[in-house]
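Narrative progress, year one. The postdoctoral researcher (J.K.) led the effort to move from monomer predictions toward full complexes, under supervision of the PI. The following entry was the first complex the group processed end to end, covering 610 residues in total.
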Amino acid sequence: MVRELIVKDGHVLGVKTGMGLEIKAKSVVLTNGTFLNGIIHIGEKQFGGGRTGESAAKGITEQLISLGFEAGRMKTGTPPRVDGRSLDYSRMEIQYGDEQPEKFSYSDETKPLEKQHSCWITYTNKEVHETLETGFDRSPMFNGRIQGLGPRYCPSIEDKINRFSERERHQIFVEPEGWNTVEIYVNGFSTSLPEDVQYKAMRKIAGFEHAKMFRPGYAIEYDFFPPTQLKLTLETQLIENLYFAGQINGTTGYEEAASQGLIAGINAIRKVREEEAFILKRSEAYIGVLIDDLITKGTEEPYRMFTSRAEFRLLLRQDNADLRLTEKGYAIGLASHERYEAMNNKKKQTKRLIHDLTQKKVTPDEVNDKLTGIGTAEIREKITVDKLLKRPQLGLDAIATLTTDLADYLSKFSKEVREQAEIQVKYDSYIEKEQQMVEKINQMENFKIPMQFDYLAVPALSAEGKQKLHKIRPETLGQASRISGVSPADVSILTVYLGR
Amino acid sequence: MFSEYDVIVVGAGHAGCEAAHAAATMGGKVLLCTMNMNTIAQMSCNPAMGGVAKGQIVREIDALGGMSGIISDKSMIQFRMLNRSKGPAMWSPRTQNDRMRFAEEWRLDS
Ligand SMILES: Cc1cc2nc3c(=O)[nH]c(=O)nc-3n(C[C@H](O)[C@H](O)[C@H](O)COP(=O)(O)OP(=O)(O)OC[C@H]3O[C@@H](n4cnc5c(N)ncnc54)[C@H](O)[C@@H]3O)c2cc1C
């Protein structure tokens, strides 16, 4: 276990382990998760730990504070795990996977599932809530023993009952933990109430009458470091070559953690080699939105990603992440050559298909019967296929049924290319609007502010603006404009000052 | 005396594993330090990846050359595209995963 960082003259030089071993490095990435001074709570019981059965990490927070860092406290929780063999699934709704399952990776290395596991849905009820309430006086959340702020969007069941007392039931997702395990994750029932209360209340849920509990739910409190202390590369402002990523920055969730780790890892090695910083813009990726939000606005409660946090949602789609990012990943030596080729191929094919759709024409005689059958208006004269594709009732799959010529032609393209072309044609005016907005704001986003810029020496800035800018040290004018407390007038003043 | 590393990553959760994998793939000499070899890439909470907005992030990690997408695929037990009935900006992939296999795949692949 790492106990301490080796720091000299504002540079990190390595780590010291619990046994006193010193290991040297040019850069260090801290991703301690929920382990820093972690305390686990179950009812009135509390003990040190980073996760159930694992010990907490001590010393690092204290050292960082002594180096000038600000630290805070957050909490999160997890539900009980139960024995799937003890549940009555006939009393729950079954939830199947997609009929045509897809997958995450753009590479051929993985395949979609052929056989899937189902999940189930059930609900709490009044009796469950009343039973839970009998434990509220012993709840660490309500009697003040837990100080940290929890995730608003993933609250414990006691929080839900307390905050939404008018709701008579809450949804529970019953999720198997794997192929060869009987363990079940009771999603929606996160709790830190005493074990006996958890058990009694859980058994009043439909289908859980005879449930056997493997492990109780618990809450965990841990240290985090307000992320406004970082640069957009996730390097700390105070200590050179020291990076923070993941839950230590006040986020919650695997995906949020993983993406920060990726960006920190990339930048750590690039800085060692004196290469340029790798930063994704808000208009390029959710990862860019995530990091910009953290660094610019900080977070008071565990931060998780939502589509509403992104202003360019229509550009940041799940179907085009490769078109947006694989070239960048390839340029820095992370994405493989095959990936890059595959992306280029998809791009080329999509372009070709879209072009052809604007050229290919169909006549009323050829397609009107079919169009009526699909439930969309007939055409009066010859039109190009892309115009038809813009109709809400028509996708490329339906268009392929119109003529054998179209069917033959479309069958030459992969499912991914067809989907990509369809989206780009259907939404082209919206996509273009967002792109124009991006170009407009990019003037501000590309306007760099030197890291050492002395805001305190600019008398015209508002007092609050000056203070916030000095603390957060934005890297671009765009980032400066998003800091709360920095007024549009402050931004104009900066523009003038920096333009000189 | 130990020779000097380019990058030391402290912690082998989701953040630490991606950080170490990226720096090593890019040719760095990397050390990943953790407390317990059995809990590498542990899904401490629910056995699922992705979902609304989070699924987009996993796709982005994959597009850049990170591992979370591949690991999730190799350990998934169910796949659903959430919000399919809404516009494509809202489509969000989500997998239910085999917790043991997820951690195992991370160990094997990196
Ligand atoms: C009980 C619990 C409930 C959660 N509930 C939710 C939820 O409901 N919804 C949600 O979205 N997310 C939830 N999460 C959060 C999610 O699990 C995390 O956000 C994500 O796993 C964080 O990843 P990470 O890489 O930052 O840290 P972690 O996955 O926590 O990994 C930290 C790693 O660092 C190691 N480590 C720590 N300190 C040291 C040290 N000094 N030396 C060496 N190694 C060290 C640990 O061994 C561990 O491997 C929960 C987490 C926990 C623990």
